[in-house]
Amino acid sequence: MVDVHLPRLRASRNELKPIDEKRIERAKNASSISRPEIISAYRSIIKSYGRDPSKRRPSSERIRAMLLKGRLDVDHPAVLAYNLVSAATGIVLSGFDESKILGNIRMGSHSGEVELIDGTILELTGKELVLLDDEKVLSVVPYMDTIYAKIDSGTHEAVFVPHIVQGIPAPLALRSLRRLKKMLDSMGAHTVIEL
Description:
Blueprint: E1 8-12, H1 21-29, H2 36-48, H3 59-68, H4 77-89, E2 93-97, E3 106-115, E4 121-132, E5 137-140, E6 144-145, E7 157-162, H5 170-186, E8 190-194
Antiparallel strand pairs: 1-7, 1-8, 2-7, 3-4, 4-5, 5-6
Helix pairs in contact: 1-4, 3-4, 4-5
């Protein structure tokens, strides 16, 4: 278990304003691809798991592809916000319903099955980095969040965490959190970044 302090963004609000089309277009046009070292760092982690990064891509890369094809379909404005920031910056972000988290979020490893938010079951070997709380796996780094603390229509407080791995400079990850904070603030959320 790696007990590291992860920067995070906390947000609360009962109802968020929708994201305007201009922000969505800006995310489509943002050039996270101009930072190939980000994608390379995430793909290297996936290779270290013994998996093919062309078959299970980092979520920021997958989200960007879905956005460009017009297939990014999410049902919560906060989820859309962190997906847009992730696509635009290349930094993988996770978002969780804070009421579903037990204890602290930390990075570690885990073996066994987890259910991802897209409904697929992933068998973890223990090599994979995960974000977890005291009871469960919250996200598989840098793939996808699990269903266990998913943000949904009942979420009133959320927490967002960047996936910081070797090759991802912490200041770059922090910049993505600041960008998400600015977007959520403009949507009416009350946010604070914790370092």
